[in-house]
Design a protein that fits this description.
The protein is of the alpha+beta class. It has one domain (3-126): Roll (Nuclear Transport Factor 2, Chain: A). The chain contains four helices and six strands; from the N terminus they run ααββαββββα. It has helices at residues 3-18, 22-27, 45-55, 113-120; strands at 29-37, 40-43, 57-67, 70-79, 89-100, 103-110. The protein has a six-stranded mixed sheet, with helices on both faces. β5 (89-100) and β6 (103-110) form a beta hairpin.
């Protein structure tokens, strides 16, 4: 898949996430999507749906790095959940997406851009 196509899918995925549009998010995701976070990983659209409902996450893109099916986005994340007592929290984060056949097959969130780029096999030279 071309880099531009991968970025387009990731942008649509992130837009659906920000709108809390579970139906669109699931259509853009592989049925066996892997969700990777600070607590480990899990697979499947139902895991993604539950995470969407629980996380209350909104992401703003700061920078995009991509090559082939790998896309890393440096983001400002804001979330509001029961874990934060309903109060908003915010931090700069990075997300690594793998896009195959126009579907996100893997989504991993990192607290550090350098770590996300390394996990994706990308460098700052892959800035789009």
């Amino acid at each position: 898949m071309a880099t531009a196509d991968s970025i387009q899918v990731v942008n649509a995925w992130q837009d659906a996430l920000n709108r809390q549009d579970a139906d669109t998010l699931l259509v853009l995701s592989d049925p066996n999507i892997e969700i990777i976070g600070p607590r480990g990983s899990a697979f499947g659209r139902e895991v993604l749906r539950a995470w969407l409902e629980r996380a209350g996450l909104k992401l703003t893109t700061l920078h995009v790095f991509a090559r082939d099916e790998h896309v890393v986005i440096a983001q400002q994340g804001v979330w509001q959940s029961a874990e934060t007592g309903g109060l908003p929290s915010q931090a700069n984060v990075a997300s690594h997406f793998v896009v195959i056949d126009r579907h996100v097959t893997s989504y991993a969130r990192f607290d550090d851009l350098v770590v996300a780029l390394k996990a994706a096999g990308l460098t700052e030279a892959d800035l789009c």
